[in-house]
Specification:
heterodimer; A: 114 residues; mainly beta; 6-stranded mixed sheet; 5-stranded antiparallel sheet; B: 114 residues; 7-stranded mixed sheet; 4-stranded antiparallel sheet; 0% helix
Chain lengths: 114, 114
Amino acid sequence: DQQVKQNSPSLSVQEGRISILNCDYTNSMFDYFLWYKKYPAEGPTFLISISSIKDKNEDGRFTVFLNKSAKHLSLHIVPSQPGDSAVYFCAASGGAWGAQKLVFGQGTRLTINP
Amino acid sequence: GAGVSQTPSNKVTEKGKYVELRCDPISGHTALYWYRQSLGQGPEFLIYFQGTGAADDSGLPNDRFFAVRPEGSVSTLKIQRTERGDSAVYLCASSLTAGGGEQFFGPGTRLTVL
């Protein structure tokens, strides 16, 4: 069973506009969530994280929102830049699953159009 | 400062052969993780080490897979009697401690089993 789901395999956004990537999870015991960005032939690179005690975390152009009741998190990128084109993975950890093991979604390929 | 490195970057082998994949974590990181990423999927947890010991190997798919970290630094993932279904990108990550939080990923080893 897929405990972390990214239902949009791809997203295309105009440069300068807002990109919104979504992620849903099923395990209510998860207490820490992360977003990673991946370029081809490279490993995933950490972007931003959020603990379950918060509902928002912001870092420059990147903001992550967590809605625990809906078991949903989203990543907002504003303004979007061509260099943001990559595959984005959300990941979760915690609870019985353990703080150490990350459970990843399938990824969303973001394309920023000039 | 060097990041996580993995060798080889690509490995092609024949069904039934034995392979070893190597990971050099970031210096000083005590926790090391192995993940496997199949095409179109997110990384999937295999095993993690705290120091020299395998703290959790629950993600290893079967007993053909084994990993070691004898001196608490470099780790080797070993796959015996490879099968075509083992073809994937094998990712290694490290973190300062095993208490959760950000994991730093290497570029991965692409394994192809013919």
